[in-house]
Amino acid sequence: MPLIDLHSHSQCSDGSLSPADLVALAVRAGVKALALTDHDSVDGIREARLAANGTGLTLIAGVELSAVWGVHNIHVVGLQVDIEHPVLKAGLAQQAGARAERGKLMAAKLEALGMKGAYEGALALASSPDALSRTHMAQWLFDAGHVSTIQQAFDKYLGPRKPAAVPMPWASLADVVSWIKAAGGVSVVAHPGRYDMSRTKMRQLLQDFKALGGDGMEVATATEKPDMVAYLGKLSQQFELLASQGSDYHGKPAPWIALGRFPSLPAGCIPIWTAWGWPATDAESVLSRELTA
Ligand code: AMP
Ligand code: MN
Ligand code: MN
Ligand code: MN
Question: pLDDT tens digit string along 131-151?
Fold first, then answer.
């Protein structure tokens, strides 16, 4: 089982656990290094850090930034970021404003379709208007009986080009890479296999990301089949991007995903954590930190 999980969510975005409970679960699950990567927020890092103190778990300060690349919405994970850096803070404030505005517009569309109380309902599930995500809206649609599954909420209302979709003015790919770099972090294209794009487009994305100064890409994630993990491993080598791994744990909104459970990186990939000086295999890297702790 991998010991390093570099992608997870708490209540500070669309996860169901508090940052402290997430860390406690990671410790119980045998995870030795965990990155908290909430959507467009680092609000949970402080609490997660405190919770990790004295447990032997290394908490990595992370964030998953939403970005626009052409007609696509791309997620970029930043790892080992300085959460106090003014450039990152300004970027996050901009994203939060866009998210809060989108929440109101999305709810107004649902209300116009006859689903009353959408805004208050979804907001009650989120930690703040700035953190309101489509996951919360989907959960409210389900709880209120408007859809019979969360997936149906996306398929019927919230997905791209659906009646309650609101195109988002997220930052550009270039901007989010530059914010992460300014904050001293490494940037990683999240779940490249999950965008609705051809393999040619995916290669173009990775090429552009590399040219913008991007550092890595996720290769081993919980939801990818073995042949996709192998393919992504090859792409990481071809585009000279460091390979990342993680569960993308959300808790209740995605109960089929367990913290720390995903395939190992294929042979030949250079792990992203070598960028911050850890040894190449995750077991070795954990052991070396245990010995020096
Ligand atoms: P947002 O950042 O508010 O646009 O919300 C995006 C989040 O919604 C993603 O991070 C996922 O957690 C969730 N999501 C997106 N598409 C789906 C889907 N088809 N089914 C379930 N959850 C989804
Ligand atoms: Mn999410
Ligand atoms: Mn994502
Ligand atoms: Mn995620």
Answer: 999 999 999 999 999 999 999
Domains and CATH numbers, the chain: 4-84+172-291 (3.20.20.140), 93-158 (1.10.150.650)
Whole-number pLDDT of residue 288: 74
Q: How does residue 291 score in pLDDT terms, banded at 50, 70 and 90?
A: low
User: Residue 112 Cα, ligand 4 centroid: separation in angstroms?
Assistant: 30
Is residue 211 predicted with pLDDT exceeding 80? yes
14 in ligand 1 pocket by Cβ < 6 Å? yes
According to the model, what pLDDT value does residue 292 have? 63
Q: What does the DSSP assignment read for the chain?
A: --SEE--B--TTTT-SS-HHHHHHHHHHHT-SEEEE--BT--TTHHHHHHHHTTTTPEEEEEEEEEEEETTEEEEEEEES--TT-HHHHHHHHHHHHHHHHHHHHHHHHHHHTT-TTHHHHHHTTSSSGGG--HHHHHHHHHHTTS-SSHHHHIIIIISTTSTT-----PEEHHHHHHHHHHTT-EEEE--GGGSS--HHHHHHHHHHHHHTT--EEEEEETT--HHHHHHHHHHHHHTT-EEEEE--B-STTSTT--TT-SPPPPTT--BGGGGGT--SSHHHHHHHHHHH-
Q: What is the pLDDT of residues 219-255, one digit of tens each?
A: 999 999 999 999 999 999 999 999 999 999 999 999 9
Give ion ligand 2 contacts, CB < 5 A: 14
**How far is ligand 2, taken at its centre, from the CA of residue 39, in Å?**
7
